[in-house]
């Protein structure tokens, strides 16, 4: 299990254990954490699972695919550490990961 | 006695989401979901895509974990049908004999596969794809060497064809119209998908009308066409569209017109009754008309509208309708609807499998069909909503970024 901290825009913190193999998005949805909509269910088709990856974890979470980069290019409030959480696979190496959510996914 | 609260009829993507949003919006009275399938709300789109190919499991399909419903005091009544709505008494009757009361009722009744009324439709091997149970049957039927005939070259049919090929089945698609996706996409897209599938071994019979299923000993052996030919197959998947499950609403006297008529709050002609998802005939403010949509995006938008109205929140802003399809390694993303468009503009080269087709009304984008072109999809979604005029010459030039097109 990897312990992941999801921080809502209003500062509310949710620390949950996520099974390796799931995506960071699925970890949020399965634990009923608000703020990640994931309208398309993880098909990288909608850009409603946008998160900011804490600086310390940027390298470990990998880089954006071309598809993800193009989708994020048109999302709201994009920062250099923006990712689509459906595209980050959880591994044991991500134990301790911290992600923050934007004000809105739409 | 406590208040009855909200009763949601239909445990699909729309119904499950409405319940979750009501709680998220602070609604505290009881919520009951009644569903006629034996499982809690799940996602249907992967049934013809990732799930069918075995890339995702049943647990990943679930909209929420089961604990969610207990934790949020949402009662799930599954494998039970609602047989009548008694509007004056504000109750619904269930087929297990119970009657339950509501303050507000949300009808999330969905749609069902359109039947193909030809002889032999009851043979074993004639399949549909709507529910998780349908998908289980199809998945078990399409292994290596199996011959699958897909009747209907729409999105469901093409996604199943792609998944079938990926799993090693022989696939033939029978389409009544002279081209694929005839009702839902432009010709450029039809041609692209036909070639893409053909290059991966799918056979097409266009302008081909199925007139009968032939069988032996109760088991399907082939599909007979109007021109007399017989297409031999082990299984036939019928994907010829969907019909709204509006009967319950009609019998209750609610306004229906090829779907339950609702407003932008998802409210029906009875102020205590809402309807959301595939079953509705809804306003599309951007296109100034009423229409029935079949998509997750529509289900989610209307779930928000109904939940906001019931929880006393301001209505959400209207969204640009969108959808997607996965076939092989192709991601098709659709936004808007090509209503009233007077021109079509293709950006990029279909031969490269990365292009977008824009439907324009003057200088305004009305709809986009984007193939492996996420920037075109995302930009168009915003431009369709804002109705901002664009520079057509720039849009047509794939060397100019969509950022620049959108800013011009």
Task: Give a description of the structure.
The complex is a heterodimer of chains A (106) and B (408). Chain A is α+β, with helices and mostly antiparallel strands and 106 residues long. Helix content of chain A is 14%, strand content 21%. Chain A contains two helices and five strands, in the order E-E-H-E-H-E-E. In chain A, a hairpin with a 5-residue loop joins strand 1 (2-7) and strand 2 (13-18). The radius of gyration of chain A is 12 Å and the shape is globular. The mean pLDDT of chain A is 92. By secondary structure, chain B is α/β, with parallel strands linked by helices. Helices cover 25% and strands 30% of the residues of chain B. Chain B has helices at residues 13-24, 58-61, 66-71, 132-141, 155-166, 187-198, 247-251, 296-311, 374-386, 392-396, 402-407; strands at residues 6-9, 31-35, 74-78, 82-86, 91-94, 99-101, 104-107, 111-113, 126-127, 147-151, 170-175, 203-206, 210-216, 219-225, 230-232, 235-238, 242-244, 260-261, 273-275, 280-284, 289-291, 322-327, 330-336, 343-349, 354-361, 364-371. In chain B, the strands form seven sheets. Chain B has a five-stranded parallel β-sheet. In chain B, strands 9-16-10-11-12 form a five-stranded parallel β-sheet, with helices on one face. In chain B, helix 1 (13-24) packs parallel to helix 8 (296-311). Chain B is globular, with a radius of gyration of 22 Å. Chain A binds chain B through residues 22, 26, 29-32, 34, 37, 39-41, 43-47, 67, 70-71, 73-75, 106, and chain B through 20, 24, 43, 45-46, 49-50, 60, 64-65, 68, 71-72, 296-297, 300, 319, 322, 324, 326, 331, 333, 372-375, 378-379, 381-382, 402-403, 406.
Helices and strands in order:
The complex is a heterodimer of chains A (106) and B (408).
Chain A (H helix, E strand, L loop, with lengths): L1 E6 L5 E6 L5 H7 L19 E4 L12 H8 L8 E3 L13 E3 L6
Parallel strand pairs in A: 1-5
Antiparallel strand pairs in A: 1-2, 3-4, 3-5
Chain B lengths: L5 E4 L3 H12 L6 E5 L22 H4 L4 H6 L2 E5 L3 E5 L4 E4 L4 E3 L2 E4 L3 E3 L12 E2 L4 H10 L5 E5 L3 H12 L3 E6 L11 H12 L4 E4 L3 E7 L2 E7 L4 E3 L2 E4 L3 E3 L2 H5 L8 E2 L11 E3 L4 E5 L4 E3 L4 H16 L10 E6 L2 E7 L6 E7 L4 E8 L2 E8 L2 H13 L5 H5 L5 H6 L1
């Amino acid at each position: 299990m990897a312990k992941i901290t999801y921080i809502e825009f209003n500062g509310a913190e949710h620390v949950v254990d996520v099974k390796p193999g799931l995506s960071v998005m699925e970890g949020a949805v399965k634990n009923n954490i608000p703020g990640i909509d994931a309208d398309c269910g993880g098909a990288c088709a909608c850009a409603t699972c946008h998160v900011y990856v804490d600086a310390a974890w940027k390298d470990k979470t990998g880089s954006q695919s071309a598809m993800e980069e193009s989708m994020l290019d048109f999302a709201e409030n994009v920062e250099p550490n923006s990712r689509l959480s459906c595209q980050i696979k959880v591994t044991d190496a991500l134990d301790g990961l911290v992600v923050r959510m934007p004000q809105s996914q739409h | 006695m406590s208040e009855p609260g909200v009763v949601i009829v239909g445990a699909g993507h729309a119904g499950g989401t409405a319940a979750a949003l009501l709680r998220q919006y602070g609604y505290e009275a009881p919520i009951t979901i009644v569903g006629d399938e034996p499982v809690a709300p799940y996602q249907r789109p992967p049934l013809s895509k990732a799930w069918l190919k075995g890339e995702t499991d049943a647990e990943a399909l679930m909209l929420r974990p089961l604990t969610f419903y207990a934790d949020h005091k949402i009662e799930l009544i599954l494998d039970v049908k609602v047989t009548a709505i008694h509007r004056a008494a504000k109750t619904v009757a269930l087929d297990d004999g119970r009657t339950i009361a509501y303050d507000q009722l949300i009808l999330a009744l969905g749609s069902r596969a359109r039947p193909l009324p030809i002889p032999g439709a009851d043979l074993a091997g004639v399949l549909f794809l709507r529910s998780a149970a349908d998908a289980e049957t199809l998945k078990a039927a399409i292994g290596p060497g199996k011959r699958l005939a897909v009747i209907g070259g729409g999105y469901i049919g093409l996604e199943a064809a792609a998944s079938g090929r990926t799993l090693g089945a022989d696939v033939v698609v029978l389409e009544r119209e002279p081209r694929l996706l005839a009702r839902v996409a432009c010709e450029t897209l039809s041609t692209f998908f036909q070639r893409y599938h053909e290059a991966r071994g799918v056979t097409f019979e266009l302008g081909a009308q199925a007139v009968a299923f032939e069988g032996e000993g109760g088991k399907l052996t082939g599909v007979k066409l109007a021109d007399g030919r017989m297409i031999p197959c082990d299984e036939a998947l019928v994907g010829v569209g969907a019909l709204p499950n509006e009967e319950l609403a009609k019998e209750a006297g609610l306004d229906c017109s090829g779907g339950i008529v609702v407003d932008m709050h998802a409210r029906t002609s009875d102020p205590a009754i809402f309807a959301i998802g595939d079953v509705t005939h809804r306003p599309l403010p951007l296109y100034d008309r009423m229409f029935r949509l079949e998509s997750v995006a529509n289900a989610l938008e209307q779930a928000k509208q109904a939940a906001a109205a019931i929880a006393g929140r301001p209505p959400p802003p209207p969204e640009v309708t969108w959808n997607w399809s996965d076939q092989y390694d192709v991601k098709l993303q659709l936004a808007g609807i090509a209503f009233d468009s007077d021109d079509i503009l293709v950006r990029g080269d279909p031969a490269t499998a990365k292009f977008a087709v824009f439907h324009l009304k003057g200088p305004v984008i009305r709809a986009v069909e984007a193939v492996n072109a996420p920037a075109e999809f995302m930009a168009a979604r915003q431009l369709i909503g804002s109705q901002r005029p664009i520079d057509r010459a720039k849009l047509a030039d794939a060397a100019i970024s969509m950022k620049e097109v959108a800013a011009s």
